[in-house]
Amino acid sequence: MGRPLRPRGKRLQEDTRRHHRSLLLQQLFREGPASRADLARTTGLTRVTVSDLVGELVGDGLVEELGAPAETRVGKPPTLVGLAADSAHIVGIDLSAEDRMTGAVLNLLGQVQHRHEVEIAGAKGADAVALVHRLAAELIAMTDRPVLGIGVGSPGVVDAGGTVIDAPNLGWTDTPLSASLAEKFELPVVVANDANTAVLGEHTFGETGDGGLMVLRVGTGVGAGLVLEGALLHGHLGAAGEIGHVVVDPDGERCACSRTGCLETVLAVPHLRRRLADAENAPSRTAVLTTAGEQLGVTLAPVVGTLNIHELVLSGPNELLDGPLREAVDRTIRDRTMPVSSAGLVVRTSNLGEDVVLVGASVLVLAGQLGVS
């Protein structure tokens, strides 16, 4: 399933120093300011190693000295150090919407500093790539801080090198999006599937629990990202989570993938909004949402039963997902799984709202460049 997202414990390999830097940054990132002695105690590193690494991180501008805590014991007070959240910024880009590409400049704590978007206006293929380049350039121009990197959440299947293998809605096949951005801007670039990006955002900033986490991203398409036992699940050929192209209605609508009746034709935002617009009254609209939730629940029940997922997070327009649809998903999963599989299961919408992919894009860069998440 890949390496754990958060470093733990000592490591005796060639990259020991980088790993130990990540341990300290991870502690400051998750727990906030601490003294050097506290960092040594929590990471298991020696005080000499911690002092040396903290000095290096202060010199790099990633960590800053904050002075003594408000309440100190008798004797010389310790000096707290903390992550310098605005020492560098991250460019995050979300390509999951049907009509626009959305971007933000974020600090090292995933907090949005600036926002920007461009209309897609039907652009596909090379024209869509050019739009991503334009959006990235305009975002970089919005910050006066060093840019740590660019993170992109893209629909479709994306390989480990950031090539979009297949994204029908953008007309991309084997499109080296990461390589083209890196060459253009001479910055580290990480491109991942938008659902995987969303689950990283939720895992890091969404106040999730310790069990298995699935984020179901509902937009122009439908996809899922999973974090199991602290690691992002990639699957064979990087296609884990492509649940939107599971057939749920063989007599249903034609899907962009050329199959008939995929979950995406039932749940994707354009399809759902169209059926709601055709509904004659409020009870009919509730029935549309309930039916979609039941079909989703039927699709997800085997996944919950197999992986014992603890949290299922629905990410997309809240007015569509929260309420009858979410309630139907929750009820259907419980009806179709053993009580032990769904005991404690939480089905909710994302605490991060529409920013979940943008925030997750910042995590892509934080994990790649600093080793924290």
Keywords:
alpha/beta; five-stranded mixed sheet; Nucleotidyltransferase, domain 5
Compute the number of strand runs.
16
CATH class category name of the largest domain: Alpha Beta
How would you characterize the largest beta sheet?
5 strands, mixed
Through-space gap between termini: 16 Å
Q: What is the alpha-carbon Rg in Å?
A: 22 Å
Number of domains: 3
- Walk across the major sheet and give the strand order: 6-5-4-7-11
Helicity range of the residues?
Answer: 40-55%
CATH 2nd-level architecture of the largest domain: 2-Layer Sandwich
What overall geometry do the principal axes of the alpha carbons give?
globular
CATH superfamily of the largest domain: ATPase, nucleotide binding domain
Return the structural class.
Answer: alpha/beta
Number of helices: 13
Spell out the helices and strands N to C: HEHHEEEEEHEEEEHEHEEEHHHEHHHEH
Mean pLDDT: 90
**What is the fold named in CATH at topology level of the largest domain?**
Nucleotidyltransferase, domain 5
Percent of residues in beta strands: 15-25%
Uncertain segments are: none
Structure notes:
This protein is of the alpha/beta class and 373 residues long. It has 3 domains: 16-83, Winged helix-like DNA-binding domain superfamily/Winged helix DNA-binding domain (Arc Repressor Mutant, subunit A, Orthogonal Bundle); 89-199 and 356-369, Nucleotidyltransferase, domain 5 (2-Layer Sandwich), CATH 3.30.420.40; 208-350, Nucleotidyltransferase, domain 5 (2-Layer Sandwich). Helices cover 40% and strands 21% of the residues. The chain contains 13 helices and 16 strands. It has helices spanning 16-31, 36-43, 47-60, 126-140, 177-185, 194-205, 263-267, 269-278, 282-307, 318-321, 324-336, 339-342, 356-369; strands at 34-35, 63-67, 80-83, 89-94, 100-106, 112-119, 147-154, 157-158, 164-167, 172-175, 189-193, 213-218, 222-228, 231-232, 311-315, 346-349. The strands form 4 sheets. Strands 6-5-4-7-11 form a 5-stranded mixed sheet, with helices on both faces. Strands 14-13-12-15-16 form a 5-stranded mixed sheet, with helices on both faces. It is globular, with a radius of gyration of 22 Å.
